[in-house]
Fold these 2 entries.
Entry 1:
Amino acid sequence: MKKIFNRIFRSEFNKNVLILSSGTAISQFILVLISPVLTRLYTPEAFGAFAVFLSITAIIGSNINLKYEQAIMLPKEESDAYKIAYLANYLNFIISLIIFICIVIFFDPIANALNIESSKPIWLYFIPLATYFIGFNTVLINLNNRFKNYKSMSGSVVVKNLSMTIVQLLFGFLKLLLDSGLIIGQFVAYILGNRVLRLNVSFKYKEMLSYKYKDLKTVLHRYRDFPRYAFPAGLANATTLNISNLLITSIYSVNDVGQFSLANRIIGAPNVLIAQSVSQVYYQKACEEIKNHGNCKSIFLSTLKKLVVLVVPIYIPLIFISKWIFPFIFGSEWVDAGVFAGFLSILMAVRFVSSTLSNTINAVEKQKIGLITNIILLFVNLIAFGIAYFLKFNILGFVILYSLSLTVAYALFLIIYYKIALKGK
C-alpha cells in the first residue's frame, strides 16, 4: 500500500489532480450532505427556479469573455498573460452591462418565455451581475492554472460551496425569501470564491484600467481564433449542457425542472468532483507535452485509462439503485428525480470521460473542430426535444431519449479527441 501511495504522489500530474480534487471533494461532500436538508426546506418549484437561473447564467457567464481566458495559458511572457486577462475582463463588463439593459427593456417577454409569472422572478435583474462574477471566475481560474496555484483553486471551490450552503440553510430555516434563498446563496459563493482566487495572482483593477486599446491590440489579434471558434463552440457546449432546464420549464413545468435538476446535480457530482479537476491539470500537461514532443498522445492515453477506472464503480451501480435511494435520502417528493437519475447515469459516465479530454482541442489550438463538435451536440439536444414535443412524450420519455442520444454523441467525440491528440499541432 505504501508503495502505491509513493508511486501516486511521485507524479506531478497526480499530485496536482489530488490537490484540486481534494477541495472539490470537500465541497461536493458538503453539497451532497446538505441536499437532503435543502430538499425538505425548499420545494421542487424553488429548485426549478434555481435551476433556470443557473442555466441562464452558466450559458452566458461561461462565454462572456469570448473565450479569451483560455488563451491565458499560452503566452511565454507573463505580461502577455495578464494583458489577455484584462482584455477578457473588459469584454466581461461591457457584455454584462448590455445584458442588464436588455433585461430591463424585455423583462416581461423573457419571463413569459420561461413560463414564469412576471411578478415573481425579480432574480432576472441579477443575471448580469451573476454572469460578470462567473466570467471573472474563469479568468482567475486560468491565471491560477498557469502559475500552478492549485491550492488556491481548490480552496476557492471549498469556500464557494460552504458559503453557499450556509446562506441557503439560513434562509430556509428562517423561511426568508424561500423563492430566492437558493439564488442568494449562489451570489455569496461567487463573491467569496473569486476573492480566494485573487490571493495568489496579480490581477489589479487599477492596472487593468491603465491599459488602453492599443496596449491590448496585440493579444486581441494574436489569439483571435478563440472568439472566432472557441467562443461559438463554448456557447454551443454551454447551451447543450444547460438548455434542458430552460426547455423543460417551457414544455413541461417548473416542478419537472426541479426533479430533473436535482437528479442532474447529484448524478453529475462526480463530474464536478473529479472530471473538472483532471481536465484543468490535463490541459496544462497537454500544453507542455505538445511544446516538447509535438503531440499529447502519452498524457491523453494515461488520463483516459485513469478516467475509465474511475467511471465504472461510480456510475454502473447508480443505473440500478438510484430510483430507490433518491426518495429515501431526499424525501418522498423526489421520486421522479430518482427515476431520472438512473437514465442520466449512462450519459454522465460517457460525458465524464469525453468532456475531461475535450481540452485536447484547446491544447492543439484546433478551435474549429471544437466548434463543429459542440454545434453537433447542440443539434442532438434540440432534436431530442423536438421529437419529445411533437410526439408528445411525457417527461420520462424525454429523459430517456435525451440521455441515449447524447451518450452516443459524446462517445463519438472521444474518438475524435484521440485522433487530434495523436496528430498534435
Note: The longest helix spans residues 297-330.
Entry 2:
Amino acid sequence: MLKIGIISYTTSTIDIAKGVSQDTKSELIVKIGFPNRQVLKIAQRLEREDNVDVIIASAAIYDRIYTYMHVPMVRMQLINYDFIKALHKASKLGKRIVYVEFATPLTHNNFYDPDSVESFFGYDIERIMMHSTNETKNIVSRITNHHYDVVITPAKCVLDELPSSVHKIELIFGKEVLHAAVGRAIQAVAKISREREKLYKMQTIVETFEDGMITCDKMGNIETFNAAAEEITGISAHNLIGRNIKEIIEDEIIGKIYGNGLGTVDEMIELGSRKILVNRILIEYGLVIKIQEVTKIQALEREIRKSLLNKGFVAKATFADIAGKSGTIRELKNMASKYAASQSNILITGESGTGKELLAQSIHNVSPFNKGPFVAVNCAALPESLLESELFGHEKGAFTGAKKGGKAGLFELAHNGTVFLDEIG
C-alpha cells in the first residue's frame, strides 16, 4: 500500500483523510503544521521516520519545504468552491468581512481565485496577507481595531486568538481537493517508479561496457558512472552519482573529461602519464561521455591483428619451400634474406607462375614483421574505380555500394606486417 504524508494547517483534514484513504486504498498520515520554520522538521520526520512515498502539503507549506525534500511532493490548493461556501456563510453573519490568507510566492492557481469570486458575486471584503505565524498577534490586533464582523481564514492560530465578538470561519480543504491531491500523488510516485526502472536498466547496460561511460541528465546531474570509468579516473561512483557535474568540474580529472560540456569526437586528454580518448555526445535527455585509455585501444588493435592472422592473413612459405640448388637460386635466397632485414619496399619481377608470392612470403617470414599479417592483393582483379577504397578503406556511405559500417583498407589490415601487391604491371 502506498504511504502518503499530508501536512495541513487545519485539523479537519484528519477526518477528511479517513474517507479518502478508503477510496484510494492508500495509507494517509496527516500532520498538522503551519508555514513556519518548524514545518520543515515535520516534513523530514514524515520522510525519515514514517517512510512515506510522497508528501502532500498545502500551498504555503509546500512553498517553504519542497526544495529540501527527497521524496516527491504534491501541492494542495484551495478551490473556488470552498471559498464561495465560506463567503456565503460569512455574508449571513455580518457586513464587514476580512479574509486572512497565507502568502505563497508561486504562480496563480486556476482553481482558486479570490479576486474573481469577489467580483462575480459582488462581495466586498478586505484581505490580509499572512507571511508567518509570527504575525498572528499583529493581525489579530488589526482585525479588532478595524471592528470586522467576520473573519475567514485557514490560519487556526488567528482564529484561536480572536475575541468572541468576532465571527470565525475556518477555511478548510474539501474532500474533493484532498482526493485530487492524493490522485496526483499516486501518479507522481508511479512516474518516478517508471523513471527509476528505466535508469536501473540503463545503469545495468552501461555497466557491461568495457569503455568508461558517464551519463548526465538535462540538468547535468550524474546518473551513471560505470566500473570502467571508476578504473580510468580513480574516482568512486558513490562520490559522484546524483551530483551535478558542473559543480565538480574544479576536480582536475572531471574538469578535463567534461571540458566545455559540448559534443566532441576523439578528444585526447592526459591524466597524469596516461592518454585518454574522450567522446562527448549530446542527446535529447542529457549528455553521454565515453572515455577510453589509449593503451587499451592499442592492445585491442593488437588482438584484432592476431585474429586476422587466424583468418588467413599469414605467410606459410619459407625459403626452404623454394626448390632448386643452383647458384642462381642460392644467390636469390641470399639476396632476399638481406633485403628482408630492410624496412624499404622490395620489387619482385618475374613471369607469371615463377613463384613471386612464394618468395614474398619467404621474405616476410624472416623479416622483422613476421609476427604481423601477410596480406596478398591481386591488383589485376580489382577494378580501377575501387582500387583506392580497397587499399585505403572507406567510411560508411562513401559511395554507391559501400558497406553500411564502412570497411578497413588492406594497408590498415596489414599494419605491422607485409602487403604483397601482385600483378601491378
Note: The mean pLDDT is 83.
